TrEMBL record:
The lineage of its organism: Bacteria, Bacillati, Bacillota, Clostridia, Thermoanaerobacterales. This is Outer membrane protein assembly factor BamB. PANTHER family: CELL SURFACE PROTEIN, OUTER MEMBRANE PROTEIN ASSEMBLY FACTOR BAMB. It holds the Pfam family PQQ_2. InterPro entries: PQQ_b-propeller_rpt (IPR018391), PQQ_rpt_dom (IPR002372), Quinoprotein_ADH-like_sf (IPR011047), WD40/YVTN_repeat-like_dom_sf (IPR015943). It comes from the Bacteria. Signal peptide: none annotated. Residues 122-251 form the Pyrrolo-quinoline quinone repeat domain. It comes from Caldanaerobacter subterraneus.
Length: 262
């Protein structure tokens, strides 16, 4: 990467998240700082966030970049912040969140930002004001998915369907916690893996994690039992009737499941 003056610069940081790319090709990468990098590799700007971020930045239709960070207060309690940042690197607002933000936010068509922490699940208005907050299971460590009708699907100790008002529609019980993010197909089916909470030793050691297909009413359509001890990646559903998801059974494994069979 190069600085704006053309000199090479190395970013001395550890990155846990995936970059996001704006409509103009700008690449956004976050660690303890948020970096905006031009397509030619030159640094556009750098914003110090103060604490580590392990979730990926998300870009709204107006170009606003949303990212969550980790942190602690003076009492050593977990306190995170959800940031809204403009395309020129200025902080528009930041919202305090209890617990740790380990997953990326999701943005609904009305601009609502949904973000989970190890304590609660939040809906935040585009201006940074809190819309609602609810406690879900054992906290949220997976990125939520928003369906076309506005229902928000999020994993915790099971899969939850949450209305835009914050009311829980239903919960689908899974054998293990959900670490990866759910995926929604064009027919409204939700695909999720009960891959286990990798911070839970018992769940981490158990094998035979399941990949589940669930309808919009919270009913199981089918499940596929793997030999994996952990599934922390999210399902991918390209056109063609196959769902792909990665796991591990001591070795990395890629599963390809025919949706017509399950």
């Amino acid at each position: 990467m190069e600085r704006s003056d053309g000199n090479l610069k190395q970013i001395l940081a550890i990155f846990f998240s995936t970059p996001a790319i704006g409509t103009d090709g700008t690449i956004y990468l976050v660690s303890g700082n948020l970096y905006a990098i031009k397509p030619n590799g030159k640094l556009k700007w750098e914003l110090k966030l103060g604490t580590l971020a392990v979730s990926s930045p998300v870009i709204a239709s107006d170009g606003t970049i949303y990212v969550g960070t980790l942190g602690e207060n003076e009492a050593n309690e977990d306190v995170s912040y959800l940031y809204a940042i403009s395309t020129d690197g200025k902080i528009k607002w930041k919202s305090k969140v209890s617990g740790r933000i380990l997953s990326s936010p999701a943005i609904a068509t009305d601009g609502t930002i949904y973000a989970g922490s190890t304590v609660s699940f939040y809906a935040v208005n585009p201006n940074g004001t809190l819309k609602w907050r609810i406690d879900i299971g054992e906290g949220v460590i997976s990125t939520p998915a928003v369906s076309q009708d506005g229902t928000v699907y999020v994993g915790s100790d099971g899969l939850y369907a949450v209305e835009p008002t914050g009311k829980i529609k239903w919960k689908f019980e899974t054998r293990n916690g959900i670490f990866s993010s759910p995926a929604i197909s064009s027919d409204g089916t939700i695909y999720v893996a009960d891959g286990g909470n990798i911070f839970d030793k018992k769940q981490k050691e158990e094998k035979n994690k399941n990949i589940c297909a669930i309808d919009a009413d919270g009913k199981l359509k089918w499940k596929y039992t793997t030999n994996s001890s952990a599934i922390v990646s999210s399902p991918a559903i390209p056109k063609g009737g196959t769902v792909y998801i990665g796991g591990t059974d001591g070795h990395d494994v890629l599963y390809a499941i025919d949706l017509s069979v399950g």
